[in-house]
Amino acid sequence: MEILAIANQKGGVGKTTTAVNLAASLAGRRKKVLLIDLDPQGNATSGTGLEKRALELTIADVLLDGIDLKDAIYPSPAGFDVVGANRDLSGIDITLMGKSDSHLLLSNAMQNIGDYDYVIIDCAPSLNLLTINAMVATQGVIIPMQCEYYALEGLADLSQTIDRLKELNPELHIRGVLRTLFDSRNTLANDVSAELESHFGDLMFKTIIPRNVRLAEAPAHGMPVLDYEKSSKGAQAYRKLATEIIKQSRQLSQ
Ligand SMILES: Nc1ncnc2c1ncn2[C@@H]1O[C@H](COP(=O)(O)OP(=O)(O)OP(=O)(O)O)[C@@H](O)[C@H]1O
Ligand SMILES: [Mg+2]
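That's the Chromosome partitioning protein ParA sequence above. Prediction below.
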């Protein structure tokens, strides 16, 4: 089993779009996938076709009340399992702050989740306690980035956080930086992309996710883009990303 957290404290860079569509693409390759939504916005939950407000148990019940994570797993219409989130998760930082082991809650809850090939965790745009929990529970971190002027700002904070948390989680590493919302006609985007390549080298995913309107439309229908329009550029890109990640997984396990 591999655990991958999708994180970047910058908002709107395509974390949730990546979490949902990567999960769907991996499931399309017959991998058994669990998506955990760790954002009170619950966008990943609704993006898979689940009704976030109607869920009986969410990740908030797991983290706050110690409910068994297995009991909060729901099969989604998107073809993979989901532990959902909604507004019940907001404020959890403050509730848990000061409690010992508050950073270990997710990791502890994930001890006996069953035989998944991939667990994908969608983080909120913040470096709060929830995101720290994800970093402690995960192995790899996928960092979606938009190729714009301020792209590199904030990345230093994220890298530093990852370095610091290696003490708690020696397995923690950046699995890859993913260029998202990419517009190849934009000169600045190309410049920033080249800068990212020289900065991160092999840590850059070769797959680039283009700006594609189908990716933006699909969540309104509660579907991954693979179900909404499987021949779209967005769907093609996320299938390619899944292939790249499966290949990496094979290399890592050798
Ligand atoms: N490649 C893309 N092409 C077009 N639209 C996209 C693409 N990726 C994401 N979007 C749209 O951009 C917006 C932000 O994307 P998304 O919600 O995935 O980002 P996020 O990083 O999860 O945001 P937040 O920080 O609020 O959690 C959404 O409306 C989404 O549909
Ligand atoms: Mg999001």
